[in-house]
Protein: ABC transmembrane type-1 domain-containing protein
Organism: Adineta steineri
Amino acid sequence: QRVRRIYTPAVRDMKRLESLTRSPIYSHLSASIQGVPMIRSYAAQETCIRDFFRCLDEHSRVYSVMLGMNRWSAMRIECVVAGFVGFLAFSILLMHKNLPISDLSLIFAYSFTLVGSVQWIVRLSVDVMMQMTSAERVIEYIDLKPEESPNVDSVVSIAPQWPIGAIIFDNLSFRYSSTAPWVLKNISISIQPNEKIGIVGRTGAGKSSIIQSLFRMAEVDGRILIDGIDTKQIALYDLRRHVSIIPQDPVLFNDTLRINLDPFGEYSDIEIWNALDEVKLYTK
């Protein structure tokens, strides 16, 4: 019982770490397979291999510790069972000296099976607790605060042609959860309509976070004014329907081309053809 009490919480935490370090391996492998042409065009094979080995090393470091903990528990359980068998042997020799050798052999044979049985019982109970880490992650998603309902009306009314394009970030701070650190701190930017700007920075500097703050994807402190209207006063459904983004990785739905161009069925075929003609994707 003492071995199990010490071993269970430690191996449960290591299983949680092992799951966290295994996810980057799958993500890196999936991204590398999808981006093979881009990797080869920029001759970035060595960089990708190095990043993959780094993720693999992080996972192997945690996994090796978990294997060591499993062997530690196995050795302790075997020592406990061996002590029990030794105590049983001496008790029989001292108290039952006339016991037939056949009965003695049978007792020892059943006693030795305790090594595997006890170890299997402890391992099974610990495995159940280890697998509960997956349930913990599911419960975390279940307990997430839901977004604003699409039926909520905006505090202010917006025109059908909104937005024109004037964007003001007024002392904006942004973070992904209430307990996470601020990703953006006190950002103030003024962008005029039809103005083209570029945001440059290293990976993790917060370029994507600025775009996500426009869509209110997480907690925002400060104000974002689009054509003079605070986005916090606009219903989330209306805001995201009127503001669009072109991601660097295009996504095609498994449906017709028309559904991909107009998923909500708001435009006629003539309007879609005209839009394709304007971007030079349609030739008569």
